[in-house]
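The material for today's practical consists of a large collection of protein records. Read left to right, the backbone structure tokens trace the chain's path through space. An example says more than a description, so a record of this kind follows:
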Amino acid sequence: MSKVLVIGGGPAGMMAAIMAGRNNNDVMLIDKNKELGKKLKITGGGRCNITNMRDIEDFLEKIVVNHKFLYSCLYTFTNLDLVEFFKKHNLNFKIEEDLKVYPENDKSQEIIDILKKELKKSNVKIIYEKEFKDLLVEDNAVKGVVLESEEIIKADKVIISTGGMSYPKTGSSGETYEILKKYGHTINKIYPSLVPLIIKEKWIKNLQGISIRNVKVSSYSKNKKIEMLGDILFAHFGVTGPVILNISSFLNKTLKEKEVDIIVDFIPDIKKEELSKLIRKNPNKAIYNNLKEILPLNFTKELLNYLSINKKPNELNKQEEKRIIESIKNLKLTCVGTKSINEAIVTSGGINVKEINSSTMESKVINNLYFAGEIIDVEGLTGGYNLQIAFSTGYLAGISV
């Protein structure tokens, strides 16, 4: 039996503590908040997109950074294993668009309650409102931790699952990076990821609140074309919505250095020739009325206003029609940056995976120190991938101590 400390009570930390406890270790879970799973509680607007039911090989393709590092943990504790873990507590799930998995009642609190029951069953002692300040390291091995109150808690093994820097109000504010640097770990540069994009074009603010489903957004990252499909939402600062959050994962680093163009096709399933016929369908009606079956009326009105075209279809010349079609099929927007990491869903960057044993989640720099969750430099797209990463890395760390 080992004495194990788990620092951080998010999904990765709770799963790590549960599995370490099941292996008959003496486990203590320490969290700085008054409650466990504070960020998990607000995930997906409180609905909790817990995982995705893609085959693991397809699942790995949705991991943007360091997917090879995650092979062991995702095969050790798969999406099917995660769903089965909760089903044992009679929690029902539903599978929605793009194979996203949610609790049937759309309540993240039920996920947290089950994890807390499992923590109790595994005899995990939980310490609330205690902040991790430092590690105790001797002879290149961890011996415990120091809390902010200067309290020292000794241990044989320590699992760090304190999260990244996104949503700092939930407790993941990034102080752990500096502690780990001090003991020789490399922290890859931190960027906001799955984050809204700020757009230069001022007229976009007139579209605030308008959402359009299933648009295609394309851009270039490191001379490679990136194309994504999904929903877009206009805001006063620019654009957000699932397709924008996903493409931000590929553009965030470049946007720290320069502007990036994105091209939006608002109706990817409709060809230009067909769009031309729709524009002229009723020659004496307003153009936006002819297009209202395929695009929101208020969007088309603002687009035509931006193009300074206030004509009926029978008054349009070919050049004006071409401008309308190009603006709907290939609207170029200039991204000048992302919103801050406070508004990002996940953190890009973190502990360099080359310094972690992918088969156990143990540090290669400090013996008996393990990692789980968002503190590691791994990230996936939206759709349940990041929560699965948290649970799978936590599981593997927990069974390895």
Observations:
- The longest helix spans residues 385-400.
- The chain has a mean pLDDT of 95.
